[in-house]
Amino acid sequence: MRMRNLATLALAACAIGVAAARAAEDNQAFEKIERGRYLAVLGDCVGCHTAPGGKPFAGGAALETPFGALVGPNITPDVATGIGAWSESDLWRAMHEGIARTGARLYPAMPYPAYTKVTREDVSAIWAYLRTLEPVHNEVQPNQLAFPFNVRRPATSTWDLINFKPGVFQSDPAKSDVWNRGAYLVEGLGHCGTCHTPKNITGGDRSGEALQGALLQDWYAPDLTADLRTGIGNWSTEDIVRYLKTGANSFDIASGPMAEAVENSTSHMTDADLLAIATYLKDRAPRSAKTAIALAHDDPRMVAGKAIYEDRCAACHISSGAGVPTLFPRLAQAPLVQSTDPTSLIRVVLIGSRAAATSAAPTAPAMPSFGWNLSDTEIADVLTYVRNTWGNAASAVQSTDVTTLRGRVSR
Amino acid sequence: MTRKLPATDVVIVGLGWTGSILALELTGAGLNVVAIERGPWRDTATDFPPAYAQDELRYRIRHDLFLRPEQLTMTFRNNADQTALPIRSWGSFMPPNGVGGGGVHWNAETWRFLPSDFELRTHLVGRYGEKFLPEDMTIQDWGITYDDLEPHYDKFEYLCGTSGKAGNIKGRIQAGGNPFEGARSREYPTPPQKQPYGPTLFAQAAREMGYKPFPQPSGNLSQAYTNPLGVTIGPCTYCGFCEWFGCGNYSKASPQTTILPALIRRPNFEARTQCEVSKINLDKSGKRATGVTYVDTSGNEWEQPADLVLLCAFQLFNVHLLLHSGIGKPYDPRAGEGVIGRNYSYQVTSSVDAFFDDKIFNPFIASGSIGMCIDEFNGDNFDHGPHGFVGGGYMGAVQTNGRPIQTARTPQATPRWGAEWKKAVAKSYLSSYEAVTHGGCYSYRDVYLDLDPTYTDRFGRKLMRLTFDFHENELKMSTYLTDRLAEVVQKMGPRQLDKHPRRGHYDVTVYQTTHTCGGAIMGVEPKTSALNRYLQSWDVPNLFVMGATAFPQNPGYNPTDTVGALAYWAADAIVNHYLKSPGPLVQI
Question: Among residues A2, A372, B324, B330, which one has the fewest Cβ atoms lying within 10 Å of its Cβ?
Answer without folding.
Answer: A2
